């Protein structure tokens, strides 16, 4: 069987869920060869093997501030070496840029925002959602090595244990790779909640919240359900919640098992970012709000009555 | 300072997209991509601060795409270039980037400005591809941008887990988000002036791009496009004092609690 290059990226401690999802999809296409950097220690290699990594190639670099484009050099060299049937990356802003530059270097095709990848007689068949997720598109790369950027939550990770062989190589950067200088990187304070794009449950608030302080109520609900907190553009533009939490066309696109929209009317830009969620629940005082057209379950009412009662009920059922 | 803003003619986000038999987007009745207006705005702000700055808007697209250039010119800027050729229809991101890169080589800008994404394809691939083709540094997803006199461009990028400050010498490719500052509305005077500004049309032959590398020769093929079935109507209940408890009941049935 042929190899599939899987870019897991920088491993700091645990291997993230998106990496395991990529491995699960890669196994449909061939033998996964993981490319990673960072602390790929024994435990990390064991985890990668448990999800089917036949080989783990660790890129060692003493330039911790390397800009993502530097990855392209390493990946292009590995692609020439391994001749994979496909290269998989995460469809994050960084991952898509790596995919973009790699595909130019390989003179091949690239597909982003994949929500499914299947083996086909003419190479990988990629499913995407287009135009505010109103359409399902299936595509293939027909020139060069297919470079495919996959959205988080595209598949539930499944195990297929093997014992990977480990190779290590140094990342040798050329002057051209350093032309974009990283002046500073400031890590955001961890909220202790799951990443918005990776979360199984997302609780989002909009204009109906009425202010920044009221987001504390949503945070309590998110914590009770083990979810992440999102916000509509209206709430972000009002300065009530950070932009990194904005769900929608110019924020992040999420596709969790459960999306709980609280005080969100459901403008098209917001729907573009969440309408592929498996189950959608809405709480809004306006019965005419378009969000109810998407909702599997909706409560028309005052969120400041409904959400506290829901919190009490969750606590009571868990007690 | 010579700035080129790459813009795209896209279907109106408020209307249903239509597709041709070849699974291409029907581009009739489009407009300047709303996100591109933020890139145009940044270029115009440089004009206000750096004397002698020249702004050219560049697009690749069908004849109607000239409308997007006229709209950008109505906001401001000096000239526009429209790369149009029958062979371009059906081009994917790699082909579009190849054509844009060829046009940019001819325009030899100090700064290439793009939006964070188009509002139709929305892949965000093109700015990084341009940087790769042109061997320029890339500074993407800028929520703030500044230029200093020494010819360095600096941006702030809001990533999910961190804030990055990046810098690069010119020439460079910069893409901007919708957080960077609201675009101006074209004034009546601006709209009238735009009609007189030079708008050149270039063919693939003008740029030396082989027709066999673009359009139908795209590196990707779309096999199928289907409209997403509407979601089944859900249960919508009024809160009559039990709304939160009833919602908890639903979440419990669905195994979320």
TrEMBL record, chain A:
For activity, the cofactor(s) needed are: FAD
Q: What SMART domains does the annotation carry?
A: ETF (SM00893)
Q: Which domain of life is it from?
A: Bacteria
Q: What's the subunit arrangement here?
A: Heterodimer of an alpha and a beta subunit.
Task: Tell me what this protein is called.
Answer: Electron transfer flavoprotein subunit alpha
Q: What is the organism of origin for this protein? A: Microbispora amethystogenes
Name the job this protein performs: The electron transfer flavoprotein serves as a specific electron acceptor for other dehydrogenases. It transfers the electrons to the main respiratory chain via ETF-ubiquinone oxidoreductase (ETF dehydrogenase).
Which controlled-vocabulary keywords does the entry list? Electron transport, FAD, Flavoprotein, Transport
Automatic annotation (TrEMBL), chain B:
Physiological role? The electron transfer flavoprotein serves as a specific electron acceptor for other dehydrogenases. It transfers the electrons to the main respiratory chain via ETF-ubiquinone oxidoreductase (ETF dehydrogenase).
The protein's matches in Gene3D superfamilies, at most eight in alphabetical order, are given as: HUPs (3.40.50.620)
Source domain of life is: Bacteria
Which cofactor is recorded for it?
Answer: FAD
Instruction: Check the record and name the Pfam families matching this protein.
Output: ETF
KW Ribonucleoprotein (keyword) present: no
**Keyword annotations:** Electron transport, Transport
SMART domains cross-referenced by the UniProt entry: ETF (SM00893)
What residues does the Electron transfer flavoprotein alpha/beta-subunit N-terminal domain cover?
Answer: 22-211
> Which CDD domains does the record associate with it?
ETF_beta (cd01714)
Q: Which organism is it from?
A: Microbispora amethystogenes
Q: How does it assemble?
A: Heterodimer of an alpha and a beta subunit.
The name of this protein is Electron transfer flavoprotein subunit beta
- Output the lineage of the source organism: Bacteria, Bacillati, Actinomycetota, Actinomycetes, Streptosporangiales
Concerning its family, UniProt says: Belongs to the ETF beta-subunit/FixA family.
